C-alpha cells in the first residue's frame, strides 16, 4: 500500500468513528472581545441534514468559516472528512475545499456574467475539461430548476433564482458537504421554502447539508436535527428539533 492509500484509509476510518464533520472542544477568539466559540464539540455523520440556529453573534458563521478553513481554531480540533484542519498545509487547502460547497445570504455571484458562466467558472478553476463542463452545467441547472435561464445575466433574476444559481455553482463539483449560511435571509417566504426544499432534495441524494438559519417556521416544519447556539456555546442539539426562543 502506498503512503497516500494508507492516509486515505485512515481518513475513512476516522469518518466512520467520529463523523464527516467533527469538532473537539473548539474555541475561536478574534483579536477583540469575548470568544466567538467557546468549547464547542459536535459530530455530523455522512448524509445528515443539520440546522444551526441562534441569536445574531452567537458564533454560527465563525463555525462555518472554521469548517471552510478560512479560520483556524484558537484551541481544540476541527476535522472535516478525516482531515485535521489545524494541520492542513496551505498548499492542501484548494484541494480540501473541493469537498465543500458553500452558499451565503447575499448570493455572491459574478454579476457581469450570465447564469451558465457563473456555474461553469467553478468548474474551470478546478480544471474540469470543457467537454465535461458542457455536460455538467446544464444538468446541475436543471436540478435547481433553472434549465431555461442559462443565458440570463444574474441581475435580471429574482432573489430566489439568484440563490438557485449560487446553489448550482456550489454543487457542480459534486462536494460531499454543502454549507449554507443564512441562504434564505434575503428571500421571501415562498422562495425560502423552495430553496429549503431543494436543500432537502440535495441531502436526499447523498450530500451532507448544514444550514444556518433564522427561519423559525421552516425549522419547525422540517423536523431535522437542530443545533442551537448561544454566546459561542451549543445549548441544545436535538434530532427532530424545534427553533428555541432566544430569551
Ligand atoms: P453569527 O453568525 O452567529 O451572527 P459570528 O460568528 O458572525 O456570529 O460572530 C460571533 C462573534 O464574533 C460576534 O461577537 C462577532 O462580533 C465576533 N466576530 C465575528 N467575526 C469577527 C471578526 N472578523 N473580527 C472580530 N470579531 C468578530
Ligand atoms: Mg452569521
Q: Sketch the major β-sheet.
A: 6 strands, mixed
User: Which H/E pattern describes the elements?
Assistant: HEEEHEEHEHHHEHEHEE
Strand arrangement within the widest β-sheet reads 6-7-8-3-9-10
Number of helices: 8
| Number of beta-strand segments | 10
Show unreliable segments: none
Helix residue percentage: 25-40%
Terminal-residue CA separation:
56 Å
Overall radius of gyration: 18 Å
Nearest-integer average pLDDT: 96
**What small molecules does this complex bind?**
adenosine-5'-diphosphate, magnesium ion
The global form is globular
SS class: alpha/beta
Beta-strand residue fraction? 15-25%
Summarize the structure.
This protein has about 250 residues and is of the alpha/beta class. Helix content is about 35%, strand content about 25%. It has a 6-stranded mixed β-sheet, with helices on both faces. It has a 4-stranded antiparallel β-sheet with strand order 2-1-4-5, sandwiched between helices.
Describe what you observe in this structure.
This protein is an alpha/beta fold and 247 residues long. The chain has a domain at 110-174. Helices cover 36% and strands 23% of the residues. It contains eight helices and ten strands. The strands form two sheets. The chain has a six-stranded mixed sheet with strand order 6-7-8-3-9-10, sandwiched between helices. A four-stranded antiparallel sheet has the order 2-1-4-5, with helices on both faces. Strand 7 (177-181), helix 7 (189-204) and strand 8 (208-212) form a beta-alpha-beta unit. Helix 4 (115-124) packs across helix 5 and helix 5 (130-143) crosses helix 6. The longest helix is centred in the N-terminal third of the chain and has 16 residues, at 3-18. It is globular. The model has no long low-confidence stretch (mean pLDDT 96). The structure holds adenosine-5'-diphosphate and magnesium ion (MG). Magnesium ion binds at residues 60-61, 181. Magnesium ion (MG) binds next to helix 2.
Amino acid at each position: 500500500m502506498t503512503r497516500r492509500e494508507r492516509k486515505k484509509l485512515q481518513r475513512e476510518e476516522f469518518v466512520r468513528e467520529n463523523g464527516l464533520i467533527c469538532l473537539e472542544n473548539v474555541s475561536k477568539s478574534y483579536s477583540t472581545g469575548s470568544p466567538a466559540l467557546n468549547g464547542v464539540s459536535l459530530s455530523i455523520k455522512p448524509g445528515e441534514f443539520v440546522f444551526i440556529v441562534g441569536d445574531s453573534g452567537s458564533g454560527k458563521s465563525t463555525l462555518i468559516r472554521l469548517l471552510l478553513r478560512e479560520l483556524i481554531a484558537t484551541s481544540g480540533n476541527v476535522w472535516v472528512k478525516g482531515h485535521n484542519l489545524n494541520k492542513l498545509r496551505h498548499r492542501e487547502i484548494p484541494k480540501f475545499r473541493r469537498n465543500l460547497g458553500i452558499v451565503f445570504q447575499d448570493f455572491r455571484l459574478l454579476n457581469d456574467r450570465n447564469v451558465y458562466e457563473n456555474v461553469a467558472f467553478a468548474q474551470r478553476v478546478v480544471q474540469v475539461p470543457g467537454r465535461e463542463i458542457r455536460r455538467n452545467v446544464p444538468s446541475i441547472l436543471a436540478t435547481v430548476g433553472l434549465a431555461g435561464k442559462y443565458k440570463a445575466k444574474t441581475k435580471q433574476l429574482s432573489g430566489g433564482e439568484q440563490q438557485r444559481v449560487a446553489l448550482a455553482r456550489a454543487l457542480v463539483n459534486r462536494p460531499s458537504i454543502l454549507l449554507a449560511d443564512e441562504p434564505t435571509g434575503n428571500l421571501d417566504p415562498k422562495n425560502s421554502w423552495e430553496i429549503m426544499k431543494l436543500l432537502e432534495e440535495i441531502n436526499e441524494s447523498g450530500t451532507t447539508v448544514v444550514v444556518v438559519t433564522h427561519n423559525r417556521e421552516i425549522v419547525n416544519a422540517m423536523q431535522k436535527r437542530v443545533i442551537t447556539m448561544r454566546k459561542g456555546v451549543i445549548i441544545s442539539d436535538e434530532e427532530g428539533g424545534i427553533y428555541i426562543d432566544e430569551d
